[in-house]
Write a structure and sequence with these properties.
Strand content: 5-15%
Distance between the termini: 33 Å
Number of helices: 7
Order of helices and strands: EHEHHEHEHHEH
Number of strands: 5
Radius of gyration: 16 Å
Length: 184
């Protein structure tokens, strides 16, 4: 009886979860550079589709639908992807992303940058004019999102966002490689 070669692992679709100011975009860029992940950024998509928008719930919903389509396309092509530009503050958003990823032959995973609200607010205040595409990215946003933030499911990897970016990158890379079934 012939034995087939092990099937290579499919791509990863990584949800970057956390408050505005937690460091999701910084980690996304670092993961893209280190592991070659494509970045799908809901805030950027929303800004492109609604250049005069105000980051309304409708705009974010339309942009999220576009995110899901892009994740599906990239995963079907075998590309690892990180989803940035949204907090995934509601569990249903994460579950929708995972379902789309799995239907495209990918593994949906989550990295939660757990950040104290005060630190997230401090980072937002320091970077108010940093060119971020979200028009609502200003002090007070992290506190507002924290008020509606649902804790991620237990299978999501928690990262302490008070750690330096280099430490977070190393932890994220090790966990993602393990999730893929490779040794870190």
């Amino acid at each position: 009886m012939p034995v087939s070669a092990p099937r290579p692992p499919g791509p990863l679709a990584v949800a970057l979860i956390g408050l505005p100011g937690a460091g999701k975009s910084t980690l996304a860029r670092a993961l893209a550079g280190r592991l070659g992940l494509a970045i799908v950024d809901r805030d950027l998509i929303r800004a492109q589709r609604f250049p005069d928008g105000e980051a309304s719930a409708r705009e974010k919903s339309v942009a999220f639908a576009t995110v899901l389509g892009e994740v599906q396309r990239l995963c079907r092509s075998g590309q690892d992807v990180a989803v940035d530009g949204m907090p995934f503050s509601r569990a249903d958003e994460l579950l929708r992303l995972v379902a789309v990823a799995e239907a495209a032959g990918a593994q949906g995973v989550g990295l939660w940058l757990d950040c104290p609200v005060a630190l997230a607010e401090q980072r937002l205040a320091a970077g108010v004019d940093d060119g971020h595409p979200a028009p609502d990215r200003r002090p007070g946003l992290a506190r507002a999102v924290a008020g509606r933030f649902e804790p991620p499911p237990p299978w999501v990897r928690r990262l302490d966002a008070t750690y330096p970016a280099a430490t977070l990158l190393e932890e994220a890379v090790a966990w993602l490689e393990a999730a893929r079934g490779r040794r870190a």
